[in-house]
Amino acid sequence: MPVGPERTNAQPFDHPALYYSGPAEYLDGTVPFVETALAAGEPVAVAVPGPNLDLLGDALGPVREHVLMLDMAEEGANPGRIIPGVLREFADRHPGRRVSIIGEPIWPSRSEIEYPACAQHEALINLAFAGRDAAILCPYDVDGLDDRALADSLATHPVLIDAKGTRASADFDPQRIIDRYNRPLPAPPRHAVERSVDRDSIDNARWFTASYGRNAGLSALRLVDLEIAVTELVTNSVLYGGGGLLRIWTEEDLLVCEVADSGRITDPLVGRRPVDEYSQGGGLLLVNAVVDLLRTHSGPEGTTQRLYLRLSD
After folding, report:
1. pTM
2. Got the DSSP string for the chain?
3. What's the pLDDT tens digit per position in 103-124?
């Protein structure tokens, strides 16, 4: 199934899903994409999980020296980082030029907690790159992923490429995926500790969460990340939601902290735009940069933002 980075629809932004089964199909779908883009003089980046990064790098041979190669399991561990920190960061380095990127944000070992943010990410790419001259090819392992992930991919990608060829997706509807996974988060466990937050308690919230994290076993570096993230969430809650509730707990190997208030987030790309596109700095962009996962539910009843940090580095 050879595929190049040429447009597969009438728009300047091309966002096909590549279904593959096994290494041979993976390379059949990715190597020609890279080689055709390079031959056209386009900047190329590859951001895929480590094993596929090695597979593709070996297949490209010396050509890989002209490609930005990134391990998505590291760079995109938090799906909220991928658009600003991987895709836009690369595209914005090359203004006025068409860029081609292979991005694989969903793989079989992604956790159930991470998956909704991954699916939303794939849907939000269509908003983040609307009107931009770029191609982002997204591989999907049809042997390892479940039916839900494959069905969602048809809603988030306008074009499907597989062993049978290239065809339009009749199910393309990214807004449906954005809405589907904007769902209420599971209730905190009974052992969660709760504190009210308002304008006068921002410092107290930071100190309290740092103390909790230290007792839970976070490293010194991760404690800094926790303080940064909680300060941003609590400050946003006070400024835009009138203050609310902070809850913190541990589950398995994770420290979990959430801030809930009566405000509502209306921008689906909040926290995923480059900082120069925010008039007031983009605090949620910073949160996404330092946490392992950020999940959000926002609606008429209010907003809950829940961050996750691994207790072991």
Report:
1. 0.93
2. ----SS-SSSSSEE-EEEEE-HHHHHHHHHHHHHHHHHHTT--EEEEE-HHHHHHHHHHHGGGGGGSEEEEHHHHTSSGGGHIIIIIHHHHHTSTTS-EEEEE----TT--TTTHHHHHHHHHHHHHHTTT--EEEEEEEETTTS-HHHHHHHHHH-SEEEETTEEEE-TT--HHHHHHHT--PPPPPPTT-EEEEE-GGGHHHHHHHHHHHHHHHT--HHHHHHHHHHHHHHHHHHHHHH--EEEEEEEETTEEEEEEEES-----TTTTTS-GGG-TT--HHHHHHHHSSEEEEEEETTEEEEEEEEES--
3. 999 999 999 999 999 999 999 9
